[in-house]
Amino acid sequence: MLAYDTLSRAEIKLDLDPSRVVRVFVCGPTVQDSFHIGHARTYAFFDSVVKYLRIRGYSVFYLQNITDIDDKIINRAKEENVSYDVISKKYTQEYFDLMKALKIDSVNFYAMATRHIPEIIRQIGILVDRGLAYETSDGVYFSVMKFPDYGRLSGQDLDALRTGARVDSSEEKMDPRDFVIWKKMKPGEPYWDSPWGKGRPGWHVEDTAITEKYFGPTYDIHGAGTDLIFPHHEAEIAIERSISGEPYLARYWIHSAMINVNQEKMSKSLKNYVTIRSVLEDYLPEELRYALLNAQFRSNVNFAPQLMNEARANINAINTLYEKLKFDLKNRASRGNNPFITIFTEIFENGLDFRNLFKNLLLQVNRWNSEFGSIGLIQKEFALEAIEWVDSFTGILPSGKGDSSGDELIALLLKLRKSMREKKDFAGADEIRKSLREMGITIEDRGEETIWWKS
Q1: Contact assessment for residue 106 and residue 68, using Cβ atoms and an 8 Å cutoff
Q2: 122 and 21 in a common domain
Q3: Position 401 pLDDT exceeds 60
Q4: d(CA 315, CA 313)
Q5: Residue 70 domain-assigned (yes or no)
Q6: Torsion angle of alpha carbons 160, 164, 168, 174, nearest 10°?
Q7: Where does a domain end: 256, 282, 315?
Q8: Mean pLDDT of the chain, nearest integer
Q9: Is residue 157 part of a domain?
């Protein structure tokens, strides 16, 4: 299996040992606001990758952190005149609800930063004792000059980083590149006790404390969006390797690219910030998953109506065939050695290539749809199995009939339509078909039976 590794700057083979647990860590969200489609892209991508590894026989432990204490959370709490944990709990729950809606359910454990304060303090203590970090009046800082490999992941030169760093005359930092690992409390802020006074952890050290607790000093895959390569992941490497003495933190670094909106970088300042919740008001979760996965993961995705409309059309084509195959193969047999799955596997494993996978799936789906009446039983069984195989890790098939609360109404309308057809009232039957279509329901007459699905 090939994937682009950020540290190597090359596409390399993921040499994972099937005899032991594969440890995967992906940076989770800071829970201070509603979540945007950039979050959806990162988490849908890694959800699908982890599910694929499991399909291929690997035992995977997928860990994600939740940053539930941060300057942004504190500032939001002040704006709303509530405690910081009111904000963090509200948006943590929203995050979980959105992940469930998007079928992102492969994470084994979510680790809250505030529940790992002892582990964080321990790591800071080691760094201070070794002279790799130092205390000031406002916190504890990691000394970047003590870690020569700083900048290697992002390909930045240490001297250039010094020149470009912001210099604040009020700071007591020894070097403008140094980063905070413990922030001392300001009046009215939440705090935890530590050897350096009351305060709270810096962002970077929470991740290393969490991964060291559950994975040890090294693990297999570290993932996130490209926006976290610098300084966040550089800082993680510096902290953990300075503590462990190991030559690496993660064996493989995989980063998914960003989202543009109408060809512009998505940001609140440009007022083109698109939330997951707003997209799900108009589109199915599966359509959003398809749209965000349907790209080379290192390429930016341009989010526009055309992207979502294309996703809707393609999901509808796949689902139409899927429902027809299910109807015809109620007593199907498993043939094994499915040639389409073999082809799709080779395509996907050449760089975790969802785009090429979907392209080839759609080529087959369109052929199967157009030639459906002449396809033999074995071919149909292969087709159904191949679609289900792709869906098992991409999550692109609409969730069946979904909420069953409307099923009785649909069944009643289909019964009425059948009665109208028997009475030759085809105009009335067509009106019911039209009404169902407006409800997002596609129907197809198959002899005496009518099948339906949400489209």
Answers
A1: no
A2: yes
A3: no
A4: 6
A5: yes
A6: -10
A7: 256
A8: 91
A9: yes
Can you give the pTM of this predicted structure? 0.88
Within 10 Å of residue 122's Cβ, how many Cβ atoms?
14
Q: Is the pLDDT of residue 241 over 90?
A: yes
* Dihedral (CA of 434, 280, 296, 339) sign: negative
Say yes or no: 237 and 151 in one domain. yes
Q: How far is CA 225 from CA 27, 37, 41, 61, in A?
A: 9, 12, 9, 20
Cβ–Cβ under 8 Å, residues 181 and 133: yes
- For residue 43, pLDDT over 80 is answered with yes
Dmax (CA) of the chain: 89
DSSP classification of residue 21: P
CB-CB contact of 241 with 126 (8 Å): no
Structure tokens at 352: 């975790």
d(CA 166, CA 177): 8
Q: In this structure, are 62 and 160 located in the same domain?
A: yes
- Residue keyed to tokens 């902290």: 239
Amino acid present at 428: G
| 53 and 149 housed in the same domain | yes
Q: For residue 238, what are the domain limits?
A: 2-256
Rg, the chain, Cα only? 26
* Residue 85 and residue 114 in one domain: yes
Is 64 found in the same domain as 206? yes
User: For the chain, how many structural domains are there in total?
Assistant: 3
**Are 326 and 413 part of one and the same domain?**
no
Residue 251 lies in a domain: yes
Give the count of beta carbons closer than 10 Å to the beta carbon of residue 126.
15
Residue 53's CB is within 10 A of a number of other CB atoms, namely 23
φ/ψ bin of 192: left (φ > 0), alpha (ψ from -120 to 50), beta (otherwise): beta
